[in-house]
Known about the structure:
Helix content of chain B: over 70%
Shape of chain B: elongated
Order of helices and strands of chain A: EHHEHEEEEHEHHEEEHEHHHHEEHH
Oligomer: heterodimer
Strand order of the largest sheet of chain A: 2-1-3-7-11
Number of helices of chain A: 13
Number of domains of chain B: 1
Number of domains of chain A: 2
Helix content of chain A: 25-40%
Distance between the termini of chain B: 45 Å
Number of helices of chain B: 10
Distance between the termini of chain A: 61 Å
Strand content of chain B: under 5%
Radius of gyration of chain A: 21 Å
Amino acid sequence: MSKKPKLLWLQSLTCNGNSHSFFNHSDLFSILSHFELIHFPLIDTKYTLEDVLNKRVNCDILIIEGSIKHGLEKCGVDIATLIDYYANEAKYIITAGTCATFGGMFKEYDSDNINGFAFDRDKAIDNFSKFRKKLISLPGCPIHPKWLSYVLLMIANKKNIPLDDKNRPQELYSITVHTGCVRNEYFEWKIDTHGFGHKEGCSFYENGCQGPFTRGSCNKILWNDVSSKTIIGTPCFGCTEPDFPKERLFFTKTNMGIPQKMPLEVPKRAYLTITGVAKSFNIKRLERKLIEYNNDN
Amino acid sequence: MTKKELKRESIIQASLKLFSSNGFHKTTIPDIAKVLGMSVGNLYNYFKSKDILAKEIIKYTSEILGQEIKKVNILDISSEEKIKKIVELYFKMAEEKPEMIEYFLRVYLSHREVFSDGCEGMLCVSGFVTEIMIFFDDGVERGELRDQDFFSAFGLFMGYLGGMVFLKGENILPKELHEYIDDISKNIYNALKV
């Protein structure tokens, strides 16, 4: 018998985004070699889906993908009840993605009856107090494959994972998406990007970037190991937050030109004082194009 | 405050009055030293030049005005009521300490060459401008004020008040400033409301 931790991945209401994201991990099979894979939607295992549905398997780590709706049947089985069964079995429960964690995109369809596994948006529900000691929240739409591999390898190596008040790993969620963004200098000097996809300027002032108030490590652990949305000139949509998704994602809501939402835990008075000072100077280098293209290149 | 800080503030207050009443260029460092009963050399220990003193004064007045507006901002009252309170405190300051407002109008705005290096943009008036931003932001957030460009609203509010104090300083206004509070508050609110 294998002594490796048994890994079971169950899907509820989901677009499969997180399983596909994890499937793209460049070291997927090396990571999975630490576990006995019971079920994962995209890889065959020695167990059948029937074995899982009929509770003929057990698991040490349960990964939940998708929002929870009680009464929802998949393959003739109440999926919430099945998740509950394995949640009681497991030593660790990982909610992979914002849907499984807070309700996410699917909650928009039926807000009263669709939730995350342990949260209704930012409010903890029964499962939180019930499973708090073994729950790890990994919000994101989707999660970065390396966020999950970090958690899995920490578990495989029997290391403690420091968590915050919503059981998110502090290693991944104690910073904001703003941390490490290559546009930080433009943010400091309050220089807007005019349009999308430009190398210059910050997307916080007009284009709706939520990076400064969104917990996540998108600019520390890069996507496909090379880039992030904010780096390429697209706003952060705040997909790791309990209130995701919001509306008008390419637009910064302002009150008389003042951004309505402040960087995380920054008082508006402090922000405006700094802004007034920064805007009083014109830094020529930051107003220029970084690369002057001509017709030859 | 330490003894040195108290002295520094008394220099700011004395020079603020002299600059406002006699004009920036006509007021010299020896004039200020004389009013304070201190030596010119000692005064230079506190402020190395008249220009530096001028910049410190605008920061000082802006901070005081900002602190007064902050007291209004943190009250749990409507934007309409806040406008009236801001107009009241501005005119009260203009009547009781006219040099505070006069300095802004007749020295800061009229001698840009003195302030161009070190007081660029909002650098020396941010204490006051920040509180006006907070007031506007709060008013729009509460659905009481119309969302618009910050400066179109700022100019309407502060330009209006500054203009009235300037007219009073020129002895053109037939009535005292406080007699205009009701009408002006109403005008500003009507112009800014949703």
